[in-house]
Design brief:
Elements (H helix, E strand, L loop, with lengths): L1 H44 L3 H13 L6 E7 L6 E7 L12 H6 L1 H8 L3 E4 H9 L12 E9 L2 E10 L8 H70 L4 H15 L5 E7 L4 E8 L9 E2 L4 H8 L3 E4 H10 L14 E11 L2 E11 L7 H71 L9 H17 L4 E9 L2 H8 L1 H16 L7 E6 L2 E9 L2 H15 L2 E4 L2 E4 L2 E7 L7 H17 L5 E3 L2 H10 L11 E10 L5 E12 L3 E4 H4 L6 H19 L5 E4 L7 H12 L7 E6 H5 L3 H12 L3 E7 L6 H4 L6 E4 L1 H7 L3 H16 L3 E5 L4 H10 L3 E8 L4 E2 L12
Helix pairs in contact: 1-2, 1-6, 6-7, 6-10, 6-24, 7-10, 12-13, 18-19
């Protein structure tokens, strides 16, 4: 019986022991899970590492002795171990032994080199040090635990906890928990660093934009004030040219004064120096005082006249002037109240002071300040000149009235005799003018017709040959959908539509430009006195925009459009037929390319027509190709990189930029193949000469072509020498997939840049979308920087963003050193120099690369 009881007891003891082990294991797993959850929460909530490390130490304190805790990470640049966080009961972070050099040969360095967890007590630590495995630094601890910190498969640092108390050792479960925390610590640190970096970048960019916006608002405020003053002077100056009564002039001056300061009570006094007499031709005052003429005395008005300066007199200063005897009141106060603020300004002319203008306020309704003094002083001289002019004209009119009466009587008979003759002459002139107008104008739209347009074009061409800098352009306009309009809505609707088109076209051009109707739905515009092609492009954009507006007539509405071809005079035209022919060819190309757009004439248009008639096609891949290089120089005239431009030897055009040749190719697959071939060819010829900038089309970012581009880039040994330039107009219209592929390019290590920035607009948001190496300003933006101040303001915003992103802002080097100095003062530091030949000519198809052009 006793043996059975002992057997049962032993069995229960074993079961109890097993349950305790399972419970201990469960607690350990629970601790691990809770610790990892806590680590993730701390990485998500703390904004920086300064608060993150103490939180991790506090988390470990619940499971592991961690009063003495530090983290060491490897510097990715120097390769040395550096202290990131340190808390110790005995040693301070500034301890001379806690340096990068000592870490290399210390216990910490031993764990880093061995890439394994190390646990030592005081005895085993001394024994290992005696064997030369590491050197001991700082205060000796009783227990020391070090765990490597992994990032992927690479050790990037060490996490250490040590105890100076012999009884506080580390169990197997505590070491395992310490290892698990260290395993995920690198990911948590990286999350905190990224969030910290992002917040710092957002703050810096916000500060830069705030400062830029503040400066812009301040400048706008100053400009508004200057414009308001200028507008006031214009209003006053207009009074001098208007043939109105002198009393109306006084009234208009009063209204102008009300617009710039408090002028409810205002009077104008004129001073007769010969009679020493003051008169008040105009006065509006709420107290209704006596403004009768009076002799020169010692009032406020006399003080202004004698001092010849503006006088601002408050109630206190008025009392003081009276006590000093400089002023004596000329009239008693009225029942309305006392003048509490008085402001007067002399009216000065070349002949001297002719009077004064005064504003005054009663019962503290307004207190004039120094700004009011400046304003009234600013406009008083102009008012004086206007009044002097009007007074002189008034005197002259009075003197002429009698003479005019006598002359009128003498000329009355002659006038009546001439009236009949003049009527006959006028009638004949009207008939001649009407005949000429009918012969040279369209009967429906009243626009000039073909004959008048041809005559004007001949005169413009002759003028351009004598003055080559005076360029001109011809816009050939063909209305889209006009035949459908006539067929569906009738000819009457079509006629009204043509009349409306003529009206819209007049709104898009200058007064001296000529609009003509050639017939049907074809119109032409002659633009003269142009400085560059951009002006013709601006007119074409306005015409296309206004033609897209709906037209309604008798309850029916349609939306038309226009296709425009443009010829520009710098092509060296000598015959008007060539000008009209090329404009028509460009218009036809615009219509064939989708309508509702414009195109400049290019010789390739005629070449494409030759191909259409059956002659052999000349592929872009077969053209003999060469590259020209342009150095990019910094402010010290030192080259930092090279910009390459590809040229093909065209059988008709000769050496022509591939940017022009690709515009007239409709095969997107061929374009992608040519684009990649040009990149490979250009980089292969120049990759050993430093950083190379090469233009790249967004076509290569499409999925069907991106694989070949990425494959080629991935095989480059010197990828850091390549920078791909993408056009801003193309990139702003890129799809989400193309932008994703561009981001993949950037992540691969190749530099990316932005070309032709601010060609039509200024999308500052695009600058912050990717980490660009450089941004190239468009020629249009650079050309307008110096003459147009608003472009200089936009440049400041661009500079703020590019400097913040450490991006280089570049522009084409101007023609003169003076212009370059002005651009440098605006903040531009990098300039693209002149092009020079780089490579020998050879067919593009003969160039071989590491990868096939397009998969």
């Amino acid at each position: 019986m006793r043996s059975v009881d002992e057997c049962s007891v032993n069995k229960l003891r074993k079961q109890n022991k097993r349950l305790k082990e399972l419970l201990q294991k469960y607690k350990h797993q629970h601790h691990l899970q809770y610790a990892l959850i806590g680590l993730s929460e701390q990485a998500s909530t703390h904004p920086d590492l300064n608060s993150f490390y103490p939180a991790i130490r506090q988390l470990l304190a619940d499971y592991v002795p961690s009063k003495n805790f530090y983290v060491v990470l490897q510097n990715p640049i120097s390769g040395l171990l550096e202290l990131s966080y340190f808390v110790d009961q005995k040693d301070a972070p500034s301890h001379p032994e806690l340096t990068e050099q000592h870490f290399e040969q210390s216990l910490t360095g031993y764990v880093f080199r061995s890439q394994a967890t190390a646990y030592f007590n005081r005895a085993t630590m001394a024994a290992a040090a005696a064997e030369g495995k590491f050197n001991l630094h700082g205060t000796r601890s009783e227990h020391w635990l070090g765990v490597p910190i992994y990032q992927d498969t690479q050790v990037i640092g060490v996490m250490v906890s040590q105890s100076y108390e012999q009884e506080l050792s580390y169990s197997k479960e505590q070491i395992e928990l310490f290892e698990v925390i260290a395993l995920y610590l690198a990911t948590a640190i990286e999350r905190v660093k990224k969030r910290e970096l992002l917040e710092r970048q957002v703050e810096q960019r916000t500060l830069a934009l705030t400062q830029s916006n503040h400066a812009l608002n301040e400048e706008i405020t100053q400009r508004k004030k200057a414009l308001e003053r200028q507008q006031t002077l214009f209003q006053i100056a207009e009074l001098a040219t208007q043939a109105i009564n002198i009393d109306d002039v006084y009234y208009q001056v009063h209204q102008i004064m009300k617009s710039i300061t408090y002028a409810q009570n205002l009077y104008i006094a004129l001073y007769d120096n010969n009679k020493n007499w003051l008169t008040f031709p105009y006065a509006v005052d709420e107290s209704d005082p006596d403004f009768s003429p009076r002799a020169f005395a010692k009032g406020y008005s006399e003080l202004v006249l004698t001092s010849k300066k503006c006088q601002l007199i408050s109630r206190e200063r008025g009392d003081q002037l009276c006590k000093q005897g400089l002023v004596e009141p000329t009239r008693a106060l009225t029942s309305t109240g006392r003048c509490t603020s008085w402001l007067g300004a002399p009216l000065k002319t070349a002949q001297g002071v002719i009077g004064l203008i005064v504003c005054q306020a009663y019962n503290n309704k307004y207190e004039f300040v120094q700004e009011d003094v400046e304003l009234i002083g600013y406009v008083s001289n102009q008012i004086a000149n206007v009044l002097q002019n009007q007074l002189s004209q008034q005197a002259l009119r009075l003197s002429h009235q009698q003479l005019e009466l006598r002359v009128a009587e003498k000329t009355k008979e002659l006038r009546q005799a001439n009236i009949h003759l003049q009527l006959q002459i006028d009638e004949r002139r009207k008939i001649e003018q009407q005949l000429y107008h009918d012969a040279h104008h369209d009967a429906l739209t009243r626009l000039p017709n073909r004959s008048l347009f041809i005559a004007q074009l001949e005169r413009t061409m002759a003028h351009s040959q004598h003055l080559p800098e005076q360029n001109f352009a011809v816009l050939f306009i063909d209305l889209d959908k006009f035949k459908e309009i006539n067929d569906q809505l009738g000819h009457q609707f079509g006629d009204q539509f043509l009349i409306a088109v003529a009206t819209k076209l007049k709104q898009c051009v200058r007064e001296h430009d000529l609009i003509a109707r050639l017939g049907g739905d074809e119109f032409v515009v002659l633009l003269s006195r142009l400085q560059d092609r951009q002006q013709a492009e601006d007119v074409a954009k306005r015409i296309i925009a206004v033609m897209q507006q709906p037209f309604c007539y008798q309850g029916s509405c349609i939306q038309g459009g226009a296709s425009i071809g443009i010829t520009y005079s710098d092509a060296g035209y000598s015959d008007i037929d060539e000008v009209i022919r090329d404009a028509d060819a460009a218009m036809y190309y615009a219509k064939q390319s989708g309508k509702g757009r414009f195109e400049f004439y290019h010789p390739l248009l005629n070449y494409a027509e030759v191909q259409a008639h059956g002659q052999s096609e000349h592929h872009l891949m077969d053209l003999h190709t060469h590259f020209q290089s342009s150095q990019v120089l910094d402010a010290e005239q030192q080259p930092i990189c090279h910009l390459l431009s590809a040229y093909g030897e065209h059988p008709v055009l000769g050496s022509t930029s591939f940017e022009q040749l690709k515009r007239f190719s409709s095969d997107s697959y061929m374009l992608a193949k040519v684009e990649l071939k040009l990149l490979q060819y250009g980089f292969a010829e120049h990759n050993n000469q430093g950083l190379t900038l090469l233009k790249c089309s967004t076509v290569l970012l499409e999925d069907e072509h991106f694989k070949s581009l990425y494959s080629w880039i991935s095989q480059l040994d010197n990828i850091e020498h390549l920078c791909l330039l993408f056009d801003e107009p193309e990139l702003s219209c890129a799809s989400a997939k193309q932008l994703h592929n561009l981001d993949a390019l950037s992540q691969s290590g190749v530099y990316i840049g932005l070309n032709n920035f601010a060609q039509e607009g200024c999308e500052l948001g695009l600058l912050a979308q990717f980490p660009y190496y450089c941004v190239l300003l468009s020629n249009n933006f650079s050309r307008r920087l110096l003459p147009e101040p608003n472009y200089a303001l936009m440049l400041q915003g661009i500079l703020a963003l590019t400097k913040e992103a450490n991006c280089k802002l570049m522009t084409k080097s101007p023609g003169s050193q003076a212009e370059r100095d002005k651009l440098e003062r605006l903040g531009i530091e990098y300039f693209i120099g002149q092009r020079s030949p780089l490579t020998q000519q050879r067919p593009l198809s003969q160039f071989t690369s590491l990868t096939s052009p397009v998969s």
